[in-house]
Design a protein that fits this description.
The chain is α/β, with parallel strands linked by helices and about 350 residues long. The protein folds into 3 domains: about 200 residues, HUPs (Rossmann fold, 3-Layer(aba) Sandwich); about 55 residues, SH3 type barrels (Roll), CATH 2.30.30.280; about 80 residues, Translation factors (Elongation Factor Tu (Ef-tu), domain 3, Beta Barrel), CATH 2.40.30.10. Helices cover about 25% and strands about 30% of the residues. It has 8 helices and 17 strands. The strands form 4 sheets. The chain has a 6-stranded antiparallel β-barrel. A 5-stranded parallel beta sheet has the order 3-2-1-4-7, sandwiched between helices. Helix 2 packs parallel to helix 3 and helix 4 packs antiparallel against helix 5. The radius of gyration is 22 Å and the shape is globular.
Length: about 350
């Protein structure tokens, strides 16, 4: 019996080298968990990667916890990078963080935990998981974090029930200010480390530099909605729907990307901010995923079509061609490849899908 209790108190946490996962590990130790840490080496960023690994080692030394460093670069390239490049090659704008959480981070974390005979895994994500009983059945529900500015529930909508049952998010009820203060109090060496807002494999957040040479691009015409040639684009993958900056037309701008004609390699723009095509009321979805089972449809939801976008009222329906989100107010900058995530009135993350 004693052996079983000890086993239940073990936890495996994914450390990133930042303050959030470091404080999460510290909080778990306070809860008397036997904390084990793992760092996933997904991508080489030169000195930045070396510094990150040094930070992870320092965190583990201060907290006196064991550390595994896993070289997952080959799998990350085959899974996340390939997906990222394939999507851009066909004109879509992917969200690699959502794909990484589903197919890399939590997948590997849970696999390693199984090998170590550890039930619970944790990360420094800002989100909450609640265990509830529905009709005599235990269901795990995902909710936004208390700190709305840091909430990351949007990136986690593709997790499954079996995953949520084993995951702990220690920072769900804390604010970023509280986390930094606690890190400083505990003497964690990363208490004042700057946040990384960029995609981890994009050096200086330079998408064009990353895509150059990896996918085929071809210069072509930029035309307005009346068919008038305005300029030349650098390659359609470098642009996204609703984009304003970086089009470099000048004149009577600013111009916004309305659509991309892949067959003719033409970029269509407008300088009319009220142009109807800039806003969409109906959005088709693919690969829809429900966290706790499909809601009874049609259903009224609050949907977010891009991280940081405000929630918007919508009705989700299903027809012969799949799922459709019908918005009360037209949504701007709707980009194929991004995820639309839906919430109920209580904030629960019901699920989401990839915009067609």
């Amino acid at each position: 019996m004693l052996k079983k209790i000890i086993q239940q108190k073990k936890v495996l946490i994914g450390l990133s080298g930042g303050v959030d996962s470091a404080v999460s590990a510290a909080l778990l130790k306070e809860q008397e968990y036997a904390v084990n840490a793992v760092f996933f080496h997904f991508w080489d960023a030169g000195e930045k990667t070396k510094k990150t690994i040094d930070d992870v080692k320092s965190i583990c030394k201060v907290l006196d916890i064991s550390l595994k460093i896993i070289d997952a670069r080959a799998e990350f390239k085959k899974t996340v990078i390939k997906y990222f490049l394939d999507e851009y090659a066909v004109g879509r704008t992917p969200n690699p963080c959502i794909s990484c959480n589903e197919k890399m981070k939590f997948k590997l974390l849970l696999e390693i935990a199984d090998k170590m005979k550890i039930k619970t895994v944790a990360t420094g994500h800002y989100a909450k998981i609640k265990k509830v009983e529905v009709g005599g059945k235990i269901v795990y529900k995902l909710f936004p974090a208390s700190d709305q500015q840091k909430d990351q529930s949007y990136f986690l909508y593709r997790l499954a029930q079996k995953d949520l049952a084993r995951i702990s998010f220690p920072l769900g009820g804390k604010t970023k200010i509280e986390v930094r203060e606690l890190a400083k109090k505990l003497g964690l060496p990363v208490f004042d480390k700057a946040e990384s807002q960029d995609i981890c494999f994009l050096a200086d957040n330079d998408l064009e530099k990353f895509l150059a040479g990896k996918i085929k691009t071809k210069k072509g015409k930029i035309i307005d909605t009346n068919g008038k040639i305005l300029s030349e684009h650098r390659g359609l993958p470098f642009y996204t729907i609703g984009q304003r900056k970086g089009i470099n037309i000048g004149g009577t701008g600013p111009y916004f990307v309305v659509s991309k004609n892949l067959k003719k390699n033409i970029l269509i723009v407008t300088n009319d901010q009220k142009y109807p095509a800039l806003g969409q009321e109906n959005i088709k979805l693919r690969q829809v995923h429900w966290l706790a089972g499909c809601s009874k449809l049609p259903a009224k939801v609050w949907a977010r079509i891009r991280y940081r976008n405000p929630l918007a009222y919508a009705i989700i329906k299903k027809n012969k061609r799949g799922f459709v989100l019908e918005f009360e107010t037209p949504q701007k900058a709707v980009s194929a490849g991004q995820s639309a995530v839906f919430y109920d009135n209580d904030g629960e993350v019901l699920g989401g899908g990839i915009i067609k």
